[in-house]
Amino acid sequence: MNSFKNYTIPFTPAKAYSTKVAYFSMEFAVDQSLKIFSGGLGFLAGSHMRSAYELEQNMIGIGILWKYGYYDQVRDPDNKMGVMWQQKSYNFLQDTGIQFQITINDHPVWVKAMYLPPERFGSAPLFLLTTDVKENDYLSKTITNCLYDSNPETKIAQSIILGVGGAKLLDEINYGAEVYHLNEAHGLSAAFYLYAKDHNIQSVREKLVLTTHTPVDAGNEKHNIDQLFKMSFFQDLTLKEVKEISGIKGETFDHTLVALRMAKMANGVSKIHGEVANEMWGKYENIAPIISITNSQNHNYWADEKLNNAANSKNIKEFDARKKELKKRLFINLADQTGKWFDPNVLTIVWARRFAGYKRADLITRDIEQFKEIICNAKMPVQIIWAGKPYPKDQGAVQMFNDLVVFCSNYPNVAIMTGYEMRLSKLLKQGSDVWLNNPRIPQEASGTSGMTAAMNGCVNLSTWDGWIPEFVEHGKNGFVVPPVDYEKLSEEEQDKADMDNLFKIIKDEITPLYYNDPKGWFKVVARAMQEISPEFESGRMAKDYYTKLYKNKALF
What we know:
Number of helices: 20
Helix content: 25-40%
Strand order of the largest sheet: 5-6-7-2-1-8-9-12-13
Distance between the termini: 41 Å
Strand content: 15-25%
Number of domains: 2
CATH architecture of the largest domain: 3-Layer(aba) Sandwich
Low-confidence stretches: none
Radius of gyration: 24 Å
CATH topology of the largest domain: Rossmann fold
Oligomer: single chain
CATH superfamily of the largest domain: Glycogen Phosphorylase B
Largest sheet: 9 strands, mixed
Structural class: alpha/beta
C-alpha cells in the first residue's frame, strides 16, 4: 500500500480517466455492511463509486464515518415504526494514521481519516472522516454521530467536516485533486477552503463542479449567513469577502445557489430535472451552466445474473422459475417480519423508497372501493408491499408509515416492511413484478429505484417524472400514468387524477396482461431488462461525468 502521505490510487488509471477527482458526498451506499447511507443519494454515490472502480477512473470518495449511521428502522410493540440508534464498528476500514485539526465555532476540532480500500467491495477508494477521537471534547466527538442530525448547528458542523475536512485531507495526502465534485452542496465549505489559499475565485471555479438533486426550493439547504460565519464555515475570510464572492446580499445563505456561483459546471440528474434546475436557478446572476446527466445504478451489484441470462436467451420457462425463486426469498423475509405468507404465483406490486409527502406512498389506499377491487379479485389477485424509511423528524411521513401499518392489518395480501436498506432493497426489486412510483409532478428529480427494479424483471408503473420519460414506452417496457394539466389542478385534484389513472392501468392493462398473456408479459419485462442498460447503468453515468462535467473549462 502506498503511503497515505503521498497517496495514489492502488491501480493504474485508464488514460481516458486520468484526471484526479475527489467526490464529496454526505452518504455512500457501497455495501449493506457499511451503514453510512440513508437513501437515494447514498445509493447513487455507491453505484458511482463502483462504476468508477470498474472503469479504472482516477477518483476517490470523501465522506463521513457515521458512528450511529442514519438510524435503524425497527418496530415498536404495536408494530408501528421505531427508531433505534446503534453504534457501528467496522474492522474492514483501515486507519490511515492521518489526524488533523480544523476550526468549528472558533474551536479546534480533531479529524481522523479512515480508509476503505477498493478491493473490499469493488469501489473507488473511499476516505471517511470522523471526530470520534480521544483528543476531542464531548461535543466535538458527537459531530459525526448521526447522518442528517436534526440540530441545525450540528448539521452545519457536519458540512464543515465534509467540506473543509475533506479538502484539508486532500492536502494531507497530497492527492492533487484537479476536480472537486460536490454531490449536493453539503460539502460547499471546501470551496471557501480553496479560496482562502490564494483568494482567486477563478482558480476555485476551475476545480469545482456540482450535482444538484433537489427540484424544489424548500429542499435546498439554507442558513443564516451570520451563523455560518460564527461557526467558521468560511474559514478565516471576512464576511465582506464572503458576500462578494458568493453574491449573497441578505441574511439568507442558500448553499445550492452559492455552489452554482462558485462552480464551473453543474448538472441536474435527469433531463426533466435539468430543465427544472435551469428554471429554478436561471434567474440568478453568475451561476454555472447546468446540464443534464441522468442518474444511474450499477448493474453488477444490483442485477440477478440468472434472471438476466434467462431474459437474454428468451427462455420464458427458466425466467419464470427464477423469478418465483426470488419472490419466495422475499416472501420468507416478509413472513419473518409480518407473519404474512404471500404467494409467488400472484402479481406482486411494491412501493419502496424514502417516505416523503410528495412521493405519496398511500396514494392507492385513498379510495377503498377501488383498492378492494384490485386486491380482492379472486381471478386476478394482487399482493402489495410497502417499504421505506422516513426522516425520523418528519412527523407527517412517520405518521403515513404508521397509518399504513394499521391499514395493512386489515388485509391478508398487503404488508409493510421495515429496514429498507441495501439488502432489503435488492430483495424487493428481485422479488416483485411491478415497481410502483407515483411522486407528485414535478418534484422527483430522478428516482433511481425503478432502474434497479427493471434490471431484475420488475416492470415500472410510474407517474411522468424524473428519469421515467427517458425510458418508459407505455405498454412496451413499462406503464406510465398519463399526465394531466397539473398546473391547473390543486394538489388534491392532482392526487385524485393520478390515483384514478393508476387503478385503471392496474385493472385494465397490467393484471390482464400478467394473468392472461404470459408471453406478452414476458415481452414487456424482457424489453425493459434489455433497454435499461447501458443507458441507465452507472458506467454510462461515470463516463458522462468525466466527458461532460470534469473536462470542461470555466465559462466565466
